[in-house]
Amino acid sequence: MSLCSIIRASDDKAAFTDFSFVKDLNLTALFDFRAGAKYGEKELRIENYFTRDTDVIRMRQDLFTELLDKPELYARLKKSFFELGVLFDLQTAKSEVESAEVMLLSVLELESYIAYMDDIRNIFSEYDVKSELLRGLWDTVKPLCTGDGYEHLKKEVNEQACSVRNIRSITVGVNLDPQLRVTEAGVVSINEKSFVSGELIDRILRLDMKKDEYTCISPFYPVNKKAAEQETGALRLTVNSVLSKVYASALRSWSHTVKGFIISSLRDLTAVAAEWRFISVCTDALIRLKQKGYPLCRAQFGEEDRITGMYHPVLALLSDTKEKRVVKNDLYFGSDAGIYILTGPNQGGKSIFTQATGILYTMLHLGLPLLAQSAVVRPVDAILTHFIDAGKISYQHGRLASECDRIYKINQSMSKDSLVLFDEALSSTNPTEAVAISEEIIKAYAEIGMRGIWATHFHELCRLVKDETNGKSRICNLTAVLDNKTHERQFRIIPGDGSEQSYAADIAGKYNLSKDEIIKVVSSKKV
C-alpha cells in the first residue's frame, strides 16, 4: 500500500467542488505550502488533499499522531526527504553537456543518493512504526534501498567515489623543441596527493625541507587570484578536457548510470515526496500549536456533532503569553440545533468563532488532529462559506448583487450533509431587506437539514427560533458574551440571543458617544 494512494482522496469519494472556504478561512496563514517548495517546484495545492472517506481520515490521524508523538522520527524523515528532493532537482536541472565536472559530480551524487536511502532504511529499522501509512511509506521505499542489487551498486559506487573524491593533482608532461616552444603535452599521471611549492620560504613555513616528485621547482601561480577570467576559463576547460579523455568511458558510463538509476528511482518517489511535503507542512503547524500548549484531539465519529474547547489556530499561534490565551468555545450540531444565528457586539468574536468552526471541519477532511479538547463529528460533503471580501465585489453589479450571486452558487453545491458558514451576509442593503432575505435563506437551510452558522448584526433574525417550521434542522441562537457591568468583550460564545446586552451602549461608550460622555465634554468647556 503506497503512501500517495492513501494521502490523496480516493476517486469514489473525491473532495469538495467548491473551495472558496480556503481563502475565506485564511488557511494559508496556518499551512504555508510555499515553505516546503524548492527552486522551480510548484506550490502545493491544499485542494488536492481533502477526503471524505472516514477510513482515510482515521489512517491519516494515526499518521499525524505518531509523528507528533515521535518528534525524532519526524525530524529525521523530514531531513532525508528534503535532501532527496534537492538531489532530484539537481538531476532534472542538470545540463546535458557531459563535461568532466558534470560526470565527476554525478558519481558523487550517486554516493549521496545511497547515503540518503541508507538513512531512510536505518530510520525504519530503528523505529517500530505503528501507523498504516508510515508502514506503507516503508513498503514504497524498501525495494529501492534493500536487496542484493542495491548492495552491489552501493559497493561499486563507494569504490568509484573514493577514486574520484581523492583526486588532488595532475602531472603534465610537456615536450619542447630546440627553441623551447611547446610541441606536445600530455597527462603523465592523476594523483591523490597535491603538489607543494618548492620556494624556500614556503618550505620553512611548513617545516618541510625535503624535496620529492610532488615538490615544484618554481613558485605556484595562483590561478584564481592573478589570472584573468578568460585565462581561468581556458585553464579549467583544458583540465576538464584532459579528465574527460582519461576518464571518458568510465565516467560516461557512471553518468548514464546516475541518470538511469537515480532519476528512475527518484521518479518513483516523486509522488511520495509531494505527499511528504503536505505531511511536513501540516505537522510543522501542529507542532507549533502543541508547543504553545493548545490541545489537539482525534476525531470520533457519531450521530451528532459535539465539540468542546474549540479554538482558532491562527490566533493561538499569535498568542505569546500564557496570560493571553485564546478563548475556547463549545459547539453542538444535532437534533436540538442545526442552524445557528450568531449575534453579538462588533469584534466580540463572531467572525473568529465562525472561522474556527470552518477550520475544524477543514482539518477533519484533511485527516488532521482537530483543534479542540474533544470532538465527536460527522463528515460533511461541502464546506460552503460566504465572508465579506471587497475583492469579490463586482463593480458592474454592486455588492448586494455580488452577494446574491455567491449565495446562489452556494445553493447549487449544497445538500443536507453540507456545512454553511455566513459572516455578516447581506449587510450591504437596508436592514429591512436584509432581514427578509436572510429569513428566507435560513428557513430553507433548516428545511433541507444542513448544519450552519449565520453570524450577523441583525438581531431581528433571532425571532426565527420562535417560528414554527417543518425544518429538519432546528434553528437556535448563539451570542458573543459581554460583561454586563463593564461591557468588555469576553470572546465567549454561548446559547442565547443576547437580547439583554446593550450593544448600542457598548459601541457608543467605545467611541465616547454615550449621553453622559457628551454632556461631560460640553459641560467642561469654559464659557
Shape: elongated
What structural class do helix, strand and pairing data support?
A: alpha/beta
The main sheet orders its strands as 8-9-10-6-11-12
The total of beta strands comes to: 12
Q: If helices are DSSP runs of H or I spanning 4 or more residues, what is the number of helices? A: 17
Rg, Cα atoms, Å: 34 Å
Distance between the termini: 87 Å
Low-confidence stretches: none
The CATH architecture designation of the largest domain is 3-Layer(aba) Sandwich
**Relevant CATH superfamily of the largest domain:** P-loop containing nucleotide triphosphate hydrolases
What does the largest sheet look like? 6 strands, mixed
Mean pLDDT: 80
Report helical residue fraction: 40-55%
Strand content: 5-15%
- Overall tally of structural domains: 3
Question: According to CATH, what is the class of the largest domain?
Answer: Alpha Beta
The third-level CATH topology of the largest domain is Rossmann fold
Order of helical and strand elements: HHHHHHHEEHHHHEEHEEHEEHEHEEEHH
